[in-house]
Design a protein that fits this description.
Chain A: One of its GO terms (molecular function) is ATP binding. The complex is a heterodimer of chains A (about 260) and B (about 300). By secondary structure, chain A is α/β, with parallel strands linked by helices. In chain A, a hairpin with a 2-residue loop joins strand 1 and strand 2. Chain A is globular. In chain A, about 40% of the residues lie in helices and about 25% in strands. In chain A, helix 2 runs parallel beside helix 4 and helix 6 packs across helix 8. Chain A contains eight helices and ten strands. Chain B has about 300 residues and is mostly helical. Chain B has eleven helices and no strands. Chain B is flat, with a radius of gyration of 25 Å. The N terminus of chain B is likely disordered. Classes of the chains: A alpha/beta (about 260), B mainly alpha (about 300).
Chain lengths: ~260, ~300
């Protein structure tokens, strides 16, 4: 399988007043094309740091990061980010928020009509065609997050990076957006890396769950392959013994191995 | 004119907007009530009741300020009815009617209608303030974007900001050799600080999220400025503009008293020399009303660009 993102011996440390703080060390991970990966760990373990490294928002202190064989030197539209707090620009409508991204990525090659079509398509993909002319403060939190996803997908990225995208939503909205995301991912065949602290979300959405040890100097503790059939149905999985086992394995890692380690 | 001044301003205005909202709320309740009859008959008791409720809501909104004004006029009348230098409200009213029946006459450079005087003052404020905006807003962007510049300029700004702009008037007279640009110069000086400081503050307070969006999308510098920096800073800029206009309008009266010519400040001083005290009182009201209008107009603009619910 083709490797979209390669992370080799990556470490990240920050210089603080108290001296050098090592956030991540010895990260080895290959992300394959079309794969969905969940990064899970206790808060402060550096899972967002790892995502920011892939996004190129920060550069690693050690090691090499490649996207499609080329070094990740900074942020780029081929690695689209969905931020935890949606980060829509409040002075632009939903349409204009997405158009900003579309124009940046395709503006040089395509005409205006094509750019408009891409924007409409992206919003239609997340079921928000009716809210195109609305401003972010006029729509609900779940809708904002969907616009954020539409903005990311509109760039046709090689990999979709999501930083706890549903963390701020209520449980019902979260479930609906997870289902929508699964459908979008299977329709588009997109590669995804998602930071989460929700065990169910990790199992439901991903092909591999990457579990990080507690910081400081966090690294990958275990990688769990989730071999559940797709499309996945949350109701059916609720009684699925395999699902329960995957869940248990993650819980064990988080609440036994890592808590003891921390104490 | 930094945060403290902003806070003072906003708390000073809070009661006004509060009562307006209460008035609206009362109006809203008044409209909800008569829904009980399913069919609305235009001339039935429901209609009369509704009209009554609407009137009551209107009265509740308007009555307190009217009572307040009446009290002021009453006290003024009581204080001045037994003679003395200050004219009674009635006498002032008569003078005002005479004055405003012909606000735009011209009989020589030192004898012009009150309309011309107000316009002359507004023109000075407009020019001085406009130049201050042209210099101060870009300067504020620079100071907010580059920490070194900010550290360089901060001691200078802190030193000059508390100085009364009138202290700069002689410098203006010296440099420009004429009274009129010197008055404009003092307006420029007093307007520029709030604009620099508030714009700079706005730039430093842009949420990191928006800048991350810019980085992830890899936006060009021009797009970053037009789509992110400028709209994000705009509310802060408008606060600076509002504070500047307020101060400028305060300062122009004093500056014109010193420089002479045409203008509401000069007019006040001229009427004092003519001992027409009722005209001075009228001028005080006019200055107050113009200042209020300027402030309210800018508040309206600021509300348009307020993206509070992010």
């Amino acid at each position: 399988m083709k490797k979209t993102v390669q992370i080799q011996d990556v470490g990240q440390s920050f210089d603080t007043k108290k001296g050098r703080f090592v956030a991540l060390r010895d990260i080895q991970l290959d992300i394959h094309e079309g794969e969905s990966i969940a990064l899970i760990g206790h808060s402060g373990c550096g899972k967002s740091t790892l995502l920011n490294l892939i996004a190129g928002l920060t550069t690693p202190s050690t090691g090499v990061m490649l996207c499609d064989g080329r070094e990740i030197a900074g942020p780029g539209p081929e690695r689209a980010v969905v931020f935890q707090n949606h980060s829509l620009l409040p002075w632009l409508t939903c349409y204009d928020n997405v158009y900003l991204a579309v124009e940046r990525v395709f503006g040089r090659k395509e005409g205006r009509a094509s750019l408009k079509q891409r924007t409409h398509d992206a919003l239609a993909l997340v079921g928000l065609s009716h809210a195109e002319t609305k401003f972010p403060h006029e729509i609900s939190g779940g809708m904002k997050q969907r616009v954020g996803i539409a903005r990311a997908l509109s760039m046709q990225p090689r990999v979709l990076l999501m930083d706890e995208p549903f963390g701020a939503l209520d449980a019902l909205t979260r479930a609906r957006l997870q289902d929508e995301l699964m459908k979008i991912l299977s329709d588009t065949g997109a590669t995804m890396v998602m930071v989460t602290h929700d065990v169910d979300e990790a199992v439901l959405l991903s092909d591999r769950v990457v579990m990080l040890t507690n910081g400081p100097a966090a690294t990958i503790g275990e990688i769990l392959e989730v071999k559940l059939e797709r499309p996945r149905d949350r109701l059916a999985l609720a009684h699925d013994p395999d699902f329960a086992e995957y869940r248990a394995a993650i819980m064990e890692f988080l609440y036994q191995k890592q808590l003891k380690h921390a104490a | 004119m930094t945060v403290v001044a902003m806070a003072e301003r906003s708390t000073g205005l809070a009661p006004a907007s509060g009562t307006a909202r209460e008035g609206e709320a009362a109006g809203g309740r008044a409209e909800v009530k008569p829904i009980t009859p399913a069919v609305v008959v235009p001339s039935g008791p429901g209609f009369a009741e509704r009209a009554g409720d609407a009137l009551r809501a209107l009265a509740a909104a308007l009555l307190p300020p009217i009572i307040g004004l009446a009290l002021l006029v009453g006290l003024w009348h009581l204080g001045t009815a037994n003679g003395g230098g200050i004219p009674t409200p009635a006498k002032t009213w008569e003078a005002a009617v005479a004055l405003f029946s012909d606000p735009f006459y011209r009989e020589g450079p030192n004898d012009q209608g009150i309309g011309w005087n107000v316009l002359a003052s507004l023109e000075r404020v407009g020019i001085g303030f406009g130049i201050a905006a042209l210099v101060g807003i870009p300067a504020g962007f620079m100071l907010g974007r580059f920490a070194v510049l900010s550290k360089m300029m901060n001691p200078i700004i802190s030193l000059l900001r508390p100085v009364s702009p009138l202290a700069w008037l002689p410098i203006g007279l010296l440099v420009f050799q004429r009274a009129d640009p010197a008055a404009t110069w003092t307006i420029f000086i007093c307007s520029i600080w709030p604009m620099i400081l508030n714009t700079a503050q706005g730039v430093t307070r842009i949420p990191q999220d928006y800048l991350n969006v810019a980085r992830v999308l890899n936006l060009s510098e021009w797009k970053i400025f037009t789509k992110i920096l400028f709209p994000a800073v705009l509310p802060y800029m408008l606060t600076g503009i509002r504070l500047s206009i307020g101060t400028a309008w305060l300062v122009i009266v004093a500056a014109e008293m010193l420089t002479g010519g045409v203008g509401i400040g000069f007019w006040v001083w001229d009427e004092w020399n003519n001992l027409k005290v009722e005209h001075i009182i009228i001028a005080i009201f006019v200055i107050g009303v113009v200042g209020l209008l300027l402030e309210q107009a800018l508040m309206l603009v600021a509300r348009r660009f307020n993206y509070e619910s992010r």
